[in-house]
Design brief:
The protein has about 100 residues and is α+β, with helices and mostly antiparallel strands. The protein has 4 helices and 3 strands; from the N terminus they run αββαβαα. It has one domain (about 10-95). β1 and β2 form a beta hairpin. The N and C termini lie far apart (about 35 Å).
């Protein structure tokens, strides 16, 4: 597990693509921690949700913009299927709706 510091290293972000994001009001977010494996991130987020039940945490697979462009360039005319994005978008939408307004 890697906690984000003030000087984030792009190579470190590639090594630890799974991250826990804390959603804040006004479409803001904080990266709480980064992990190599999804299972480790999900276990850690369970603990965070017990410790801070009022906060909203989401586990995301974060990739670099250049990585996405190179993947699309390798496979032209093949975007991500909507079925793959559906659960992630639903989770983010649900979390955003439960944020307090103000």
């Amino acid at each position: 597990m890697v906690y984000r510091d003030s000087q984030s290293d792009p190579s470190r972000e590639r090594l630890y693509p799974w991250c826990i994001i804390r959603l804040l009001p006004h479409c803001q977010r904080i990266t709480v921690a980064r992990f190599r494996k999804r299972s480790a991130a999900e276990e850690h987020v369970k603990v965070l949700r017990r410790l801070i039940p009022s906060a909203i945490f989401v586990v995301l697979f974060e990739v670099e913009h250049e990585d996405v462009e190179s993947a699309v360039a390798l496979q032209p005319n093949q975007g991500l299927p909507a079925a793959a994005l559906g659960p992630v978008l639903a989770q983010i939408t649900q979390a955003a709706q439960s944020l307090p307004e103000g």
